[in-house]
Amino acid sequence: MPILIIDDNIELQEVMATVLEMKGYKVVFANNGIKGLAAIEAHCPSVVICDIDMPELDGDGVFKKLRAMGGEIAAIPFIFISGRIDEKDQISRLYGGADACFIKPVNLELLCAQVSSLLSTKSRNTDLFQSKLEKIETALKISTQEKFHHYPPLFDDLDDYVHSICNVISLREINELKGSSKPDILEKDYLIYIQLWLQKVGERKFLLEGTSIDYLNWQIIYLAAEAEFQQKNIYVSDLYIMIEAARATINARLKTLVENNILSKSNDTEDRRRQLVTLQAPFQRKLEEHIRTSISQIRLVF
């Protein structure tokens, strides 16, 4: 990926480009902020070097729009350059999220060193993130194999399941799990894990709808588990409301789960017309162990 220089001073563009190209970098140009944004979208540069005072859209405007783009583009290292700023302006922009800010005339050797440092840091972060994803994949394989071979499987093809879940799982979700849970209150850990699973069930179902993974069974299980950890009752009639499926389908899945010693159904003591759904104790212990293993494995990564 090239380095993008955005500056309306053509002579300075050429000087900076010559020095950077001598260091082995490819360079592309834009002479105002509007063209600069177009070049960012077209080239996805490794670093942006941007003048502040420019026609049509100044450097501060380019920076704000870049950071608002989201995704990989928003994380591109950004260096301000200007001949009309002082140290106070430099400090302000660094606090504002810029990666560097140089006063013109720019020390070109120092600029090249800054570019090299930013690219080195970016490469390390990329390698670290990739390493964490690989560890998550390994952790999911371990945790999904734990204690579940006696029951109707969550998946048939483990590799397809893991790769699909890695596409869905987000750092926000894991950080929420890590930041909100307390190791000394395991029940809260379990509840957070279950609730995060239920929040994502629609997205995961959509991604995996071409596989044989039976999300409806597992949605019923996790809804029952959530109710038990919250010390609340959940009834068959609640499942009709909470799950997007026909009643006959839900009843068929409940029958299978009961027959496989995963769930129990019983008449409510106060209203015998209502059927209470609970986890059977042996399965609940195995589910708790599965969640504990999943949480501990993910925490090893982060």
SSE layout:
Layout: E1 3-6, H1 10-22, E2 27-30, H2 33-43, E3 47-51, H3 59-68, H4 71-74, E4 78-82, H5 87-95, E5 100-103, H6 108-145, H7 158-168, H8 171-180, H9 186-207, H10 215-229, H11 236-242, H12 247-259, E6 263-267, E7 275-279, H13 281-301
Parallel strand pairs: 1-2, 1-3, 3-4, 4-5
Antiparallel strand pairs: 6-7
Report on this model:
- There is one protein chain.
- With 302 residues, the chain is an alpha/beta fold.
- It folds into two domains: 3-124, Rossmann fold, CATH 3.40.50.2300; 146-301, Winged helix-like DNA-binding domain superfamily/Winged helix DNA-binding domain (Arc Repressor Mutant, subunit A, Orthogonal Bundle).
- Helices cover 61% and strands 11% of the residues.
- The protein has helices at 10-22, 33-43, 59-68, 71-74, 87-95, 108-145, 158-168, 171-180, 186-207, 215-229, 236-242, 247-259, 281-301, and strands at residues 3-6, 27-30, 47-51, 78-82, 100-103, 263-267, 275-279.
- It has a five-stranded parallel sheet, with helices on both faces.
- The longest helix is centred in the middle third of the chain and has 38 residues, at 108-145.
- The chain is elongated and about 85 Å long.
- It starts with a strand and ends with a helix.
